[in-house]
Amino acid sequence: MACFSAMAGFEGKRSMTRYSALSLLKNAFSHHEAWAPAWRKAEPRDSYDVVIIGGGGHGLATAYYLAKVHGITNVAVLERGPIGLGNTGRNTTIVRSNYLWDESAALYEKALSLWEGLSQDLNYNTMFSQRGVLNLAHNHGDVLEAQRRVHALRLNGIDSEYLSRDEVKAFCPIIDIRPDVRYPVWGGTLQRRGGSARHDAVAWGFARAASERGVDICERCEVQGIRREGGKVVGVETSKGYIKAGKVGIVTAGHSGVVAAMADIRLPVESHPLQALVSEPVKPIIDCVVMSNAVHVYVSQSDKGELVIGAGVDAYTSYAQRGSFHVIEHQMGALLELFPIFSRMRMLRQWGGIVDVTPDASPIIGKTPVDNLFINCGWGTGGFKATPGSGWVFAHTLATGQPHAINAPFALSRFETGKLIDEHGAAAVAH
Amino acid sequence: MLLITCPWCGPRDEIEFTCGGEAHRARPQDPAATDDAAFADFLFMRTNPKGLQRERWCHSQGCRRWFNLERSTITHEITRIYKMGEQPEASADATSPARQGGQP
User: Fold this and answer.
1) Which of A57, A93, A208, A363 has a 20 to 30 A CA-CA distance from B27?
2) Which GO molecular-function terms appear in the entry (chain B) (predicted)?
């Protein structure tokens, strides 16, 4: 089952082209047909120091920071399908860190600070655009909550400002602020450092940078079992055979419960469908991200010109990557409430992803009851924004065996101690 | 979109219903005597199966009565609907049957 011959040539040496204006020019002469693959297609070897289950953004980021920050390169990322085709390729690409509670603020702000240098760090254009994230307030309660959150964020050193109704209109002129609609706009909070990024590029960039440092990214390698000896994990059974592992990290989002069950671990997680849709591409019309809790819509415009619109979760659990139509219908109603200008726009396509929702809408990052088995899950409807930060803290946890100060509060054991980090409704948008 | 047959009202559109999550989770009879781990298991832990799941639903926009159903979380197919208090045998391919001794 070992494939040393295929691997040996890559050990310890950098084989990837560094992307630059010069390499672009060079490849232009060969009509861009001679670009090297962005990452190696690795076959799994017999044994690794660290095996990461799940090749989404979070898993790939974990592998990258393990190699870069901790010098651990004998690492495999095992992905059932091709990388980045789960929630990494299905989200609405919004990045922000305006979370109310101190624990969340530290975690998401760590992620945002990594986002700010990510394209340079990875030598891969993640198209991170700090265009500003606007969260609307529609009633007196919303306004009080928004202003409280602005102050809490500022105390945590995170940029945030409160906008009046007219300032909202000035920042995003196409919002309908008439007072006689069902959910009139009263104001909003703005995080100017927030924005969006290209989700696929995040997966590909992390994969390329991790692969370059020696990490094996094994696609179409499904984990089917977790082997334990004496309460300690020793390896994983996969569709490509048994792989010995010093440590194992589960980073499988909607399928976290399924994978954790392989080690007889129960999680406080329910898997729900979360839907999103895009419109036909149009000329630039909205240059920021707008989110509204009351009507529940979040919208931005991609560089291709499509409106990217997120819906809410379906109430039932599912692994089907699709949800019910009435959720989309509600979504369109909410969109038109805020933006009557979109009333004749056609929607191009719609899809669903499976999100792992926890009781407190905060992730679980840390140890499990099984030694050397770690888990990073429960990101629910908002994991994309955290991708680099999630990988960074989880890499620390895997490398040292202990959580970093940032992710220590996000332990699985909090559901037993009762020290929850309740971001339901506190995190600027309902989950 | 689900078509759910309410045991009292017949087949109705999903939007008339509220999903109450995993069924047959029994609150510990004596919470004060239950340790934190066991109570956390009742309160927060979920089986979250990929396959057949027993769920509570309420016909909240109709007769407002609760009932149970068994549904595939892969295909969304509803394989069984039964009233509160009933405890039918598990389907042969149920991945997560109700825990024995549970109350509705």
Assistant:
1) A363
2) sarcosine oxidase activity
pLDDT of B8 strictly over 50: yes
Calpha distance A158→A146 (Å, rounded): 14
Here the tokens at position A101 are 């509670």
Whats the size of chain A, residue-wise? 431
Q: Is A12 within a domain?
A: no
Tell me the per-residue pLDDT of A138-159, one tens digit each, with 9 for 90 and over.
999 999 999 999 999 999 999 9
Low-confidence ranges of chain A (pLDDT < 50): 1-13, 431
Domain assignment of residue A207, yes or no: yes
Give the start-to-end residue ranges of the domains of chain B: 3-26+39-85
Q: Which residues of B touch A318 (CB under 8 A)?
A: 73-74, 76
Strand partners, B82: B68
Please give the pLDDT value at position A212: 96
Please return the burial class of A211, using the count of CB atoms within 10 Å of its CB with bins 0-12, 13-18 and 19+.
buried
**Kind and range of the H or E run holding A248:** strand A241-250
| Contact flag A325-B1 (C-beta cutoff 8 Å) | yes
The predicted model scores a pTM of 0.93
Judged by CB atoms closer than 8 Å, whether chains meet at B45 and A268 is answered as yes
> Taking CB atoms and an 8 Å cutoff, what residues of chain B touch A375?
none
H helical segments located in A187-237: 199-212
CATH number at residue A219: 3.50.50.60
- pLDDT one-digit tens code per residue, A83-127: 999 999 999 999 999 999 999 999 999 999 999 999 999 999 999
Chain mean position to CA A373: 21
Are A297 and A334 a contacting pair, CB within 8 Å? Answer: yes
Q: Helices marked H in A71-139 — which ranges? A: 102-115, 118-122
CATH number for the domain spanning A144: value is 3.30.9.10
* Check whether domain B3-26+39-85 has CATH 3.40.980.10, yes or no: no
What tens digit of pLDDT does each residue of A233-252 get?
999 999 999 999 999 999 99
Q: In A, which residues are within 8 Å of B76 by CB distance?
A: 316, 318, 320
Residue A194 C-beta-side C-alpha neighbours within 13 Å: 29
The shortest C-alpha distance from B17 to chain A (Å) reads 10
In the structure encoding, which two tokens stand for residue B24, read together? 């047959």
Last residue within a domain, chosen from A326, A341, A357: A357
Same domain, A337 and A278: yes
Report CA B59 to chain centroid distance, whole Å. Answer: 13
Question: Apex CA A31: angle with CA A26 and CA A37, to 5°?
Answer: 75
Same-domain check for residues A157 and A219: no
Containing structural domain, residue A380: 47-97+99-122+199-269+359-417
Residues A241 and A316 in one domain: no
3-state helix, strand, coil in chain A (%, to 5): 30, 25, 45
Q: Which residue has the tokens 């680099």?
A: A388
Statement to judge: residues A249 and A346 lie in one domain: no
